[in-house]
Amino acid sequence: MEDEKNGRKKSRISDEMDSDRLSNLPDSLIYHILSLMDTKYAVRTCILSKKWTNHWTHVHSLNFNHRSFNRNFSFEKFIRHILRQRKPLNLCRLSFQSYSTSSSVENRIVNYAKSRRVEELETNSTDLCSSISKLQTLSCIKVCNSQITKSFNLASLNTLQLSEVGIYSDDDNVDFFSGCSNLENLFLNGCRVDKNIFKISAPRLVNLSISSSKYCAIPKIKLVLSTPRLKFFNFSGKYVQVSCIGKFPALDEVNIYMCPPYVRAGTKISKQECILDVLRVAEILHNAKSLKISWNCTKGSWNGAILDPNFRNCNCEAEQGFKGGMV
């Protein structure tokens, strides 16, 4: 009988310890955990106990996602409530995912992020992207499935990642990144570039990666690089003419993997001319510690292009099903 009582007592104590384990964590750790969650679900923790009523108001990051709501009206109402009730703390990170939010709400988000000195931004909102230059405290930006029509002018920006983003401008002289004087990392993945000349000027850029970008079937796209501190350059995708301004004394590693270009109907592009362009780039980048140029000419009329007699003197190796080599 006594053993049974002791057993129930130990079980009760164990249950109480388990139920309080999360609440006994330091407040700073709880705030950090809530900051990693979708803000909608972070707010819901207020029903756990009186102690948890206001924990969510101390989060250092906000994560708004329209998919968490059935109606856009509810989503916008929720955002207004959060921006009013959150403690007046600086904002480390803001994630905003929405395709149909009203301009008044997006303006409120931008003004709030500006006043809270936001450091990181992740979004798919085209309207929000057009106002990014107002957020001068940003050090990291991630944009996905959106459009960009204006230059970035953010002196504090260190890392920029664009995925499946349309980059548009009627002016070929527009340089989208020249206003980012401290940009060190630039990643362009699957971006659609509607420009004859695409300039990347960044005096402190160290790491540049361009993959699977699309160039709107313009006969000859020119990628102009002015990045004197570049150390790592990775390019993977359809052919584009690359032009370099100045030298790259700090260059460490270059990987270029190209396929035949998109060609508009009725337009001809010489495969020899394209290969010569790439070899000219290789000559400019010859001081890199590691330089690899690869061609995938296994499909279409370009098959075997690297074996053209005019280029047999190049230091390239050909393999069955894949044409490529080291320069």
How would you describe the overall organization of this protein?
There is one protein chain. This protein is α/β, with parallel strands linked by helices and 327 residues long. Helix content is 24%, strand content 26%. The chain is built from seven helices and 18 strands. The protein has helices spanning 2-20, 27-35, 39-44, 72-85, 103-115, 126-129, 271-284, and strands spanning 61-65, 93-97, 120-123, 140-144, 147-148, 159-163, 166-168, 185-189, 192-194, 197-201, 207-211, 222-226, 232-238, 241-244, 253-259, 290-295, 317-319, 322-326. The protein is elongated, with a radius of gyration of 26 Å. Mean pLDDT is 81; it is low at 299-327. This is F-box family protein. It comes from Melia azedarach.
Summary of the model, kept short:
This protein has 327 residues and is an alpha/beta fold.
